[in-house]
Amino acid sequence: MALGLSFELSPAGSCEEQPSHQALSDRSRPQAWLQESIRKIIDKSSIKFICSIKLDTKNGKTEDKILVLATWRLSFLAPKIPAKVETTFNFLEIRALNSHPDHQVIIDTDKSGYTLRFESREHLNHVVSHINFALSRIFNNSIFAPSICHSDSDLSEGSRKYSPSSETSVETQRACGGFSETYAALCDYNGISCKEEVQWDVDTIYHSQDSREFNLLDFSHLESRDLAVIVASMAYNTWFTKLYCKDLRIGSEVTEQVLHTVSKSSSLEEITLENAGLKSDFPQKMATALSENPASVIHSINLAHNSLDNQGVSSLIQQVCRLSKGLRLLNLSKTSLTSKGVVSLSQGLCSSDEYSNSLLHLDLSKNPGVLSGEDGSNFYLFLSQPNCLVHLDLSGTDCSVDSLFGALLRGCCADLSFLNLSKNAFSHRKVKDTLPLFRQFFSSAFSLTHVSFASMKLPPDVLRAVLMGLTSNPHITDLHLDISSCELRSAGAAVIHELFPRVSSIATLDISDNGLDADLLTVLPALSRHPSLKHLNLGKNFNIKNRVLDEVLQKLVLLIQEEECALQSLSLVDARLRSRGTVLVNALGSNTCLRKVDLSGNNMDDIGAKMLSKALQINTTLRSVTWDRNNTSAAGFLDVARALEHNFTLQYMPLPLSDIGQAYRSAPEKTEQALTK
């Protein structure tokens, strides 16, 4: 498949909008009977011009031929019936087109050369004009457009007017920069059918939404070579600035065209190829492609969930740094990055102030061991320099969290908003020495909105330092703090009980799966009447005996019934409350603050469904309820269905697929009836 053109395509509108020419004389035009025969073998809607010419042969003689000029190609036919195409080529195969005196034109293509004579300058000008016009629409006057048309004598103004270098040759009103026209030209060049659905989606959906992001998932049902042509059509397109592909394996054909587009595009700013099955050498090839494109404006690269070569990644980073806009986003999550790769990456990041002044989003997550040991020191050096990082995800990198905060304090206080350190560890020998750094960072950060320490053993002293720092921080509000699965237990519960009421910046708190259990009796009062707490996740903390569970649930009911309660959402996923949880479900009926609840995984049986049914009949504030894995039978679903008929404020309740499957096996007809309701 001839996609890797030495010059390749961009969008266009429709060459049928070609400028009007004077009516050509009928002299030298084929007879009507021959023209009719030609239209039977060449799509008549694409034919722009037919005329007689003389074509030089290899033995020095000339032959009479019929030239057929179509939208994207030139064809030569013998002047006889039935008409038969002897030679045809797409305009993109032309490497040079030279005009000479006596109406002569010499055309050099990829495969051959042709010398032809027209019977009038008028015909010659018409053909050259159309070819120039078509190419100008394909290349959108890119600096990479080939200059193929030359003349030994003056061409008419009509021919020069539509040359590829003319600034007026491409009007700006074509849908999405004329993508559909370029796509059609490339399909013709590669000998594949032009998919009208692609053109319709771009011209109608993308255009109406003013979308600048081309999403390959919209065409994931097409074959690989169709996708390759689609990507190739972006190379000179000036409309689309983003190329997006996630969870779609792209083959070598498509990858080749992605690289070609990177090497030619002067508009592409963001590229996402997440979990796209890229080969390990892709970063090195992309670095090479960028080096060939001085006009590139790429600043955001997401290659997450692909196994990549470390040295190639380093080369890519260094190359992007040389570009005009620097690097704003880099996502290398789960890319088999090693500690050596991070050393190389860190050296690249530290090599230029461009990174400190441009890099906003950095994700190295899910690369185990990548920041362990001394190899992470260069990376911490970059973080310690004043920078403009807004989003930093180092989850699952085995970074030493306590060693990190000194760097964060020095370089990231001003702009850092999102910080994910989950699934890492503390080197407990150094914790006491670094506690002041934790406290100072969380008291000094200006912009934090999301912090995660999830799935790591969080020492109580660190939790204390974090909360005390937040207590004295006047800059941040609406913070999401995720300390789920941190093994807090009684010691952590004591810290929350003591300090949380004094923290006014936390709006979302996730303390699920911390073995709090009976210690919830001391935690819940600390959360009560909290003015800023809007979202609370308490799941997997209820492994306690029935009597204590009843006390905890009563305190939880009191918490959500407080007049001053600011809670908007409550999650009790996998709390395993069993039938005792119905006291909480029942309290939802009169609750006026909660907008969203998730009660999945509590095995509350049909009695729980019945209580939910009653609550939903009178509650007017809930907008979202998630209810699954509660051992609900068809009878329970019928209760809920009847309640929903009387509730006009609930907006979202996903199908409880787990319980539905179980109920359907035992009572299929009743279950269907409930679901229909």
Describe this structure in words.
InterPro entries: CARMIL_PH (IPR041245), Leu-rich_rpt (IPR001611), LRR_dom_sf (IPR032675), PH-like_dom_sf (IPR011993), PP1-Reg/Actin-Interact_Protein (IPR051279). This is CARMIL pleckstrin homology domain-containing protein. It holds the Pfam family LRR_6. With about 675 residues, the chain is of the alpha/beta class. The chain is built from 23 helices and 23 strands. The strands form two sheets. It has a 15-stranded parallel beta sheet, with no helix packed on it. An eight-stranded mixed beta sheet has the order 4-3-2-1-7-6-5-8, sandwiched between helices. Helix 4 crosses helix 6. The relative contact order is 0.04.
Give the secondary structure arrangement, pairings included:
Elements: H1 32-41, E1 47-56, E2 62-70, E3 73-77, E4 85-90, E5 94-100, E6 104-109, E7 113-118, H2 121-139, E8 149-151, H3 157-161, H4 179-190, H5 196-208, E9 213-215, H6 224-232, E10 242-246, H7 252-264, E11 270-274, H8 282-291, E12 300-302, H9 310-321, E13 329-331, H10 339-350, H11 353-358, E14 361-363, H12 377-384, E15 391-393, H13 401-411, E16 418-420, H14 431-444, E17 450-452, H15 460-471, E18 479-482, H16 489-499, E19 506-510, H17 520-527, E20 535-537, H18 546-561, E21 569-571, H19 582-587, E22 596-598, H20 605-618, E23 624-626, H21 634-644, H22 657-666, H23 668-676
Parallel strand pairs: 5-8, 9-10, 10-11, 11-12, 12-13, 13-14, 14-15, 15-16, 16-17, 17-18, 18-19, 19-20, 20-21, 21-22, 22-23
Antiparallel strand pairs: 1-2, 1-7, 2-3, 3-4, 5-6, 6-7
Region (Disordered): 1-28
InterPro entries: CARMIL_PH, Leu-rich_rpt, LRR_dom_sf, PH-like_dom_sf, PP1-Reg/Actin-Interact_Protein
Pfam family, one: LRR_6
